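About this split. The held-out portion is used to measure sequence recovery: a designer receives only the structure tokens and must propose an amino acid at every position. Recovery is the fraction of positions where the proposal matches the reference. Here is one held-out target exactly as it appears in the evaluation file.
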């Protein structure tokens, strides 16, 4: 038997992957490209850097900044759902 969700919690939450991709689309272009190359194509930072015409350290920074933004966005959306 499935119980009803608590008050204030949606019965049809947006799946996490949809939330994530919506946030990815909002990233600055270079961060979005770096994330797509790194995780979508499973490239190393050196390969990402080569494709983007930058250094491996710059690639790491782009991906790191993007992940920080994505984590913050997911945490924010999850907190809003609880309200």
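Reference sequence for scoring:
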């Amino acid at each position: 038997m499935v119980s009803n969700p608590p008050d204030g919690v949606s019965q049809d939450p947006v799946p996490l992957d949809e939330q994530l991709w919506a946030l990815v689309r909002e990233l600055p272009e270079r961060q979005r490209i770096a994330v797509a190359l790194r995780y979508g194509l499973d490239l190393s930072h050196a390969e990402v850097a080569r494709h983007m015409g930058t250094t491996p350290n710059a690639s790491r920074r782009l991906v790191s900044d993007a992940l920080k933004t994505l984590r913050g966005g997911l945490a924010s959306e999850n907190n809003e759902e609880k309200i």
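Annotator remark: The radius of gyration is 17 Å.
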